[in-house]
Design brief:
This protein has helices spanning 2-10, 13-17, 40-47, 125-142, and strands at residues 20-27, 35-39, 55-68, 71-86, 89-105, 109-120. The chain is α+β, with helices and mostly antiparallel strands.
Length: 145
């Protein structure tokens, strides 16, 4: 799980993709995002939008793993900070939430599913959405050339 957040913050997309089974069940519905089973390559490419931020910091706490044979469920608390500069100010999109990762053993542990459940938006949901909208626009602009 630490590699999951470390790869996101480092923008190490090769390392990030290597964590997953070929298809993964994603439930980011609590932030108004994707709820679907998708190809891991597509999910990894979708997460590249984080490149629009100047910085992100995903910190995990209270990690609990329950292993049953070749399957595991890992729950954790995530404190996720996203910062993007717009004109002369920085926008802060932060959230506190719960991750539930479903893993399968395939020559090592691979993530087969990820659910994010929001607990709170410390700076407010509007601030979170504004920061993400700005970062998506910056990312799209940088990738349209």
């Amino acid at each position: 799980m630490t590699r999951y957040t470390t790869a996101l913050d480092a923008r190490d997309w090769h390392a990030y993709r290597a964590l997953f089974t070929d298809e993964i069940a994603i439930d980011y519905g609590s932030i108004g995002s994707l709820v679907a089973t998708v190809a891991a390559d597509d999910w990894t490419n979708r997460c590249r939008a984080l490149e629009g931020f100047d910085a992100t910091a995903h910190q995990l706490h209270n990690i609990i793993a329950t292993i049953e044979g070749d399957r595991a469920t890992v729950t954790s608390i995530v404190d996720a900070v996203h910062v993007v500069g717009v004109e002369d100010r920085a926008l802060l999109g932060d959230l506190i939430g719960r991750y539930t990762h479903q893993l399968v053993r395939q020559g090592g542990w691979k993530i087969a599913g990820v659910t994010l459940t929001v607990v709170a938006y410390p700076a407010g949901k509007e601030a979170f959405e504004a920061a993400f909208a700005a970062a998506r626009a910056i990312f799209a602009e940088g990738n349209s050339a």
